[in-house]
Amino acid sequence: MSQLSDGRLTALAGAAVFKRGLDYRRQGRVRLLKQTDSDLEAEVSGTEPYRLQLQRQGDRLSGWCACPADGFCKHLVAAALTWRDGDAVPQAAGPGDDLLKLLRAQQAETLARWLHEIALEDPQVGKRLRLLVAKDDVGEFGKSLADMLKVSGFLDWRRSNEYAKRLAMPLQLLAERLDDDPLQCFSLCGATLERLLKIYSRSDDSGGALRDRIHQFADLHRRAAAAACAGLDAKAFARNLLRWQKMDEWGFFAAASYWQALGEDGRDCYAALVEAEFAKLPASRGGRGTEAWLKEFGPVHRMEELALLRRDFDSLLRVLTRDLSSGHAYVRLVEVSREFGRERDALQWAERGVKAHPDWPSLRSLLAEELLRAGLNEEAVAVLWRDFQRHPMIEAWQRLKNATGAEWPAYRQRALDHVQSKERAVTDGLKDASPRLNLLLADGDIAGARVLVTSTVARPALLHDLASRLEPDHPVEAASLLRRIVDAELPAASEARSYARQVELIAAVVRLVPGPDVRAWVGELKLRYRARRKLLELLAARGL
Questions:
Q1: Contacts from 368-371 at CB under 8 Å and sequence distance 24+?
Q2: Of 480, 520, 484, 475, which Cα lies nearest the Cα of 502?
Q3: What is the spatial distance between Cα 473 and Cα 260, in angstroms, rounded to a whole number?
Q4: Does residue 473 lie in a domain region?
Q5: Among 24, 94, 103, 136, whose CB has the most other CB atoms within 10 angstroms?
Q6: Confidence (pLDDT) at 1
């Protein structure tokens, strides 16, 4: 079982998640429900019981869990370890086992009365019970499911999280239908997702729990579509997919996820619908308002996705050239041309994009890449030099460095001179050399940075970066830079958080140069800022 080795599971889940899953395994939280050599169904007791599935195919291991977590969660890790180790680890009593024993000892009539009373007090309990009772009756199950999904008003972040947690049971029950009747699972998941999209549009899901839960329903829906594709009405499926996409502002119903399940007839029907929708759009004149852009975004995006799925380069050009009023369209045209192996087209679109939108981020770098690909090195360097002149940032500096090769030393000095020419005096006649210092630090030129800061000023964050690099071999210089930061920032500091930062810097100076000059400097600070009680308290707490 190489797929279930500690190393493979750690790679899938991450070290921290693997450790939590291992703890769950050792605590005996896993209950195996069904298992074969290639498939496993289990239930893991976490904050609530979560149903999950694992599949092994060759060297691949995949899984699905009803919990809200993304990726390969701790419940899947725990189940995979149990699957691999069998009964090697004794099963400990899981959470709630004592209560379960007590309930099993009661009479059925007594339990029914208790459950009824609880359901009357809490309507959500009643809905869950009705859903469980109806799970084997498709008609009643659908009605109970619809009732359980109902929620009124706007969901703030707290209600949104609670609602997402409530959805664990219906998700689990729908997942149980996948193997027995994938067509029913597909139909019920589709209806559920329609309701959830409407609810999601009136929720504050800043915690992401509801989004993650909807993604789980969408994943189950896609798997059900794949399993039931032979029994689906392909054209109805295509029409429904487009209808769902029009409701979906968040990308739950990407056509690529359903492309194979649609089948040839379904794909043709879907394509015809999307092309007709796109054809109805008015000709774009550019400069559209936000409302018009939002109205057209869906049809344009669907047409672009369709063209990519069908590997139809001409249709992609038709979509992407519809509106060339921003540089983004040219960026996409270059990217798409590359993807289709149209190198000459990529170069032409990059040239046209730079001409039309000379200040658009990334267009110049794309043009330089295409020029280099075409062997036009001098032209590429010229483009990158102009790009650096416009935006003398680290990324532009690095691209110029990569392209110039043996000529880099000359271009490097030229670039530094250009940045220096833009520097302005800020205090005591000294110039702010922050951009130049930023480039030197990015280039690892600590010697040059040391010289530069002796006669210029720079942003505190850059001085702190340089001080960190100087500290091992040049502690006195590092302490001097930290003192400069404190002297610059402390006069304007006012909140506890900013005081705490200054105290940390002061403590670092004392640690680096624990001499009388530094002690005198600290004494001067305490005298100068004696009215700032919080600052003095923090200094005293650090023994300063």
A1: 368/399, 368/403, 370/334, 370/343, 370/346, 371/347
A2: 484
A3: 62
A4: yes
A5: 24
A6: 56
Q: Which residue has the tokens 């990407």?
A: 254
User: What tokens were used for 238?
Assistant: 């295509």
Cα separation, 189 vs 227, in Å, equals 13
Q: Is 59 left (phi over 0), alpha (psi -120 to 50) or beta?
A: alpha
Interatomic CA distance for residues 165 and 157, integer angstroms: 12
Predicted confidence at residue 289, as pLDDT, reads 63
Whole-number Å distance between alpha carbons of 110 and 457: 80
425 phi and psi, to 5 degrees? -70, 140
Q: Is 7 part of a structural domain of the chain?
A: yes
Q: Are 362 and 331 in contact (CB under 8 A)?
A: yes
Confirm whether 199 is domain-assigned: no
Domain total of the chain: 2
Out of 38, 65, 92, a domain closes at 92
* DSSP state, residue 93: P
- Under 8 Å CB-to-CB from 68, ≥6 apart: which residues? 164, 165, 168, 209, 212, 213, 216
Apex CA 390: angle with CA 389 and CA 393, to 5°?
Answer: 80
Q: What is the DSSP string of 358-370?
A: TT-TTHHHHHHHH
The token pair that represents 144 in the structure block: 């109970």
What value does the CA radius of gyration of the chain take, rounded to a whole number of Å? 32
Q: Which residue has the higher pLDDT, 53 or 319?
A: 319
Q: String of b and e for 8-33 (b: at least 16 CB within 10 Å)?
A: ebbebbeeebbebbbebbebbbbbee
Average pLDDT over residues 405-414: 93
Q: How far apart are CA 107 and CA 133, in angstroms?
A: 19
For the four alpha carbons of 219, 221, 224 and 226, in that order, the dihedral sign comes to negative
3-state DSSP assignment of residue 141: helix
Collapse the DSSP code of 383 into the 3-class scheme (helix H, G, I; strand E, B; otherwise coil) and give the result: helix
Average pLDDT over residues 271-287: 85
Report whether pLDDT(90) > 50.
no
Q: SS3 of 456, please?
A: coil
Q: Check residues 119 and 215 and name the one with the higher pLDDT.
A: 215
Q: Which of 130-144, 170-184, 256-270, 283-297 has the highest mean pLDDT?
A: 256-270
Q: Report the C-alpha gap between 128 and 276 in whole angstroms.
A: 43
pLDDT band at 539 (very low <50, low <70, confident <90, very high): confident
Q: Is 430 within a domain?
A: no
Is it the case that residue 287 has pLDDT exceeding 70?
A: no
φ, ψ of residue 341 to 5 degrees: the values are 75, 20
From 42, 68, 92, the end of a domain falls on 92
Strand order in the sheet with 49-57: 30-35, 39-45, 49-57, 60-65
Query: Which domain does 501 fall in, by range?
Result: 469-544
Residue 87, phi then psi, degrees to nearest 5? -100, 25
Return the closest-CA partner of residue 44 out of 16, 85, 8, 74: 74
Other Cβ atoms less than 10 A from the Cβ of 322: the count is 17
Residue with the two structure tokens 């659908």? 142
How much is the pLDDT for 384? 93
Phi, psi (5° rounding) for residue 423? Answer: -70, 145
Amino acid at 122: D
